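does this look right to u?? flavin mononucleotide version
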Amino acid sequence: MSDILCMYYSRTGNTKKAMEEIAQALGAETVEIRDGVERSGWKGWLRCGMDAMRKTTQPLLPFQTERPLSDYRLVILGTPVWAGRCSSVMRTFLKEHGGQLRAAAYVTTRASGGKFQEVYDQMDLYVPGGHRAAVSLRSGSVGYAFWQEEFLRQVREILGEV
Ligand SMILES: Cc1cc2nc3c(=O)[nH]c(=O)nc-3n(C[C@H](O)[C@H](O)[C@H](O)COP(=O)(O)O)c2cc1C
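got this back:
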């Protein structure tokens, strides 16, 4: 049973891929979260954009972790960037459970050139200790593998001291 949890939301698979690779490298447990909202297609895209801009949240569908959230040494949270913010699904998770995390790290995925590092500060509002490491990945970009590896290096360093 791992004491590192990779928890993520992914609408179109980019964040899922990044988190599965990270989890495999760390031997971590992975858990995907969703809410009950239909988010596929162009209507879903619009809904996601509106939810992100308005910071509206909907209840999550039930999910299960092997340990209570507060027992993990590190919880790595993965989310796409939506309209310069974290996805509203991840926002719901953070609102409901952010206070239970002993140590957190963030993985964001995005489509454009900017890194949207302000998303980390937004997520920190829900996590009392803030984040210990973070990375912003752009699928298919030249630096993708480099930054993912650099994130893993930071996480391994943290795990030596957490
Ligand atoms: C509603 C919506 C808003 C988005 N806004 C941004 C944005 O502000 N900046 C950006 O770089 N990418 C933006 N994207 C693109 C996603 O962040 C990117 O494709 C991400 O990797 C998708 O992750 P996923 O496949 O795990 O859902 C947006 C996507 C959606 C659906």
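The mean pLDDT is 96. idk if thats expected tbh
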